[in-house]
Amino acid sequence: MTIQRAAVLGAGVMGAQxxxxxxxxxxxxxxLDLVPEGADDRDVLAKxxxxxxxxxxxxxxxxxxxxxxxxxxxxxxxxxxLAEADWILEAVVEQPEEKRRLYARILEVMRxxxxxxxxxxxxxxxxxxxxxxxxxARRFAITHFFNPPRYMRLLELVAGPQTEGEVLATLAAFCxxxxxxxxxxxxxxxxxxxxxxxAFWIQASLKFALxxxxxxxxxxxxxxxxxxxxxxxxxxxxxxxGLDLVPQVDxxxxxxxxxxxPYHAVRAEFPLxxxxxxxxxRGRKGKGGFYRRREEDGRHIREVVDLATGTFRPLRRxxxxxxxxxxxxxxxxxxxxxxxxxxxxxxxxxRTIAYAARLLPEIADEIEAVDRAMRTGYGWRWGPxxxxxxxxxxxxxxxxxxxxxxxxxxxxxxxxxxxxxRLQGGRLEQLAPAGDYxxxxxxxxxxxLEDIRRASAPLAENGAASLWDLGDGVVVLEVHTKMNTIDPxxxxxxxxxxxxxxxxxxxxxxxNEGEHFSAGANIGLAxxxxxxxxxxxxxxxxxxxxxxxxxxxxxxxxxxxxPSGLALGGGCELLLAADRVVAHAxxxxxxxxxxxxxxxxxxxxxRLLARYAADxxxxxxxxxxxxxxxETIGRARVARSAVEARELGFLTAEDEIVMxxxxxxxxxxxxxxxxxxxxxxxxxxxxxxxxPTGRAALAMALRDLDLRGALTPHDHVVAEAxxxxxxxxxxxxxxxxxxxxxxxxxxxxxxxxxIRTEATLERMEHTLETGRPLRN
Length: 776
What we know:
There is one protein chain. By secondary structure, the protein is an alpha/beta fold. It has four domains: about 5-185, 3-Layer(aba) Sandwich (Rossmann fold); about 195-420, N-(1-d-carboxylethyl)-l-norvaline Dehydrogenase, domain 2 (Orthogonal Bundle); about 450-590 and about 640-680, 2-enoyl-CoA Hydratase, Chain A, domain 1 (Alpha-Beta Complex), CATH 3.90.226.10; about 600-635 and about 685-775, no CATH class. The strands form six sheets. The protein has an eight-stranded mixed sheet. A seven-stranded mixed sheet has the order 15-16-17-18-19-21-23, with helices on both faces. It is globular. About 50% of the residues are buried. The model has no long low-confidence stretch (mean pLDDT about 95).
């Protein structure tokens, strides 16, 4: 069956956001909740939930337009309309009796072929269907989303013994392809996979932070980036999740688990947590939690709770020798160290990995499913078994013995053999609970560069980028600098691709599996060159980027860019230079150079202007595309989804949006091969620019912004430079279109003028130091 219409019952935080993500996937969604006693508007709860969606940050909807796909209603008047739904998703209060009463009512109106699921994270499936007809149980499963549903990739899919295979297959395929989820089949056990291990990790982290006398910021510095855990650290993560939610999950698991489960041993009394909740500290969703911000003399001060006294104090610098040593990337240097940070990391990690190993095959069939659940549900860089292999299973067993932690049989097997994962003939294999190795198989339609890297050598590489053969005549260009910024070495590999592809291959895909496609040009390098007065070097870099990006656009082979995450500045300009873009839905695209006092100078102004001029739905004449480009670039607008990127013109109607990150490379390769069949490179573009009259119109707009106090002095300088580029300058005349090379020359000249100003250098330095723009 296909899923086209859905209904979500329960318009709380999770229910409303799930409805939003179903709307992101193109579904018509009915969102129903209770009728408040004495309410004039019987749909008020669902309507208020929809209003909240529009104000949430990050936004649950990929486009504001998608809100029209969600219809508000109530479970009294609108329950019969569930007969229209292919999928009915329940997200009401976590009480089995309440849920079963609702299911009995759903059963009266649902179609026989409809699917019903619960978003529960704490109640076993067998309790949910107890006493209900077998016909209902056959169409029922658990679809456990993680918060926030749009952004967290994990979906745990739990079936009961009566759940029909077709129901499971339909849900798995839909949640994978249409919702972009990493679907993990979990057993009907307490906490399923991610919360079972994640809750243990949280409790262990809290217990040993208190036992070893670590401060909040010290614990977060250890149980954070050094070990591949979320950068928030443990207390910061609790603030993000909610201080009130963590005790609920803990209590639920503690009730459900048998007395001999090691989870009970890591639980610790933590009265301060209850005290903070009682005082109204619930984390980031309220006035703060373990961390809070307050204002003093116009300054924002960040404070932290003192775990000994329960009072707030200023943050302190964290300094441990073991953390300094661990910056090399060798986590063993942290875990084997004798200082408090090392003892803390060792206590938490040994117990967490041993617990995960103890749980197989109780919670899942494969270690890869567990690792993937923790990566995509809890934001770990490596799952527990991947972490064990990074450390070495034998070394981990020794550390467990040092900590007095019982070593489970699966960990002993990994230590006696080749670890939890091994390479065999260039292919990855995983250790099975029975002790043998089995191939790690990707789902059909999933192609990962990490697998290509294991099985082959690069066609070309340097310290910043590589070229890889994807097969079938397609080459992929991978950037691997910090934040995948673009520097001269990246441009060198781009030049190599332009030489290599037409000789031996058919197409080029620009892609990587980092967190971001590209945060743009390396402004640290540009700032250094400017500070030492290396102006010729800077101009050469700008000219080289312009030349190579232009060559990319007119290359005799198709170029497909496949972004995910940030695609800013020079990264966005790569998208504009490509023939097509196959974008992950979570792509955040924009030309942000004005924020650091510069202009896009690798063709960004020119390409966006040309794209707006070619828009068949735009008003005719030379000024509309100029005004639109002036606003988009001048305001440094960044699309917060690939859908918004299309609305802003960074993507076109012909570009493709892929919901599942793991399917991005395969889709990009398919697009490149389709274009290669009868490829013809685009011809030169000529632009009809308004010249002095257009620049005067832009000056009037700037004057209005000045009067409203919307521009800082340097904002005005940058905007004037942008106006000069987009209008074409004094010589331009819309009757006589100019070649795009003329506009690119103006881009380059404006960039070089701006980077010589003190105010631009201050902006660049401030952005590098703080990650935030400077308004000067």
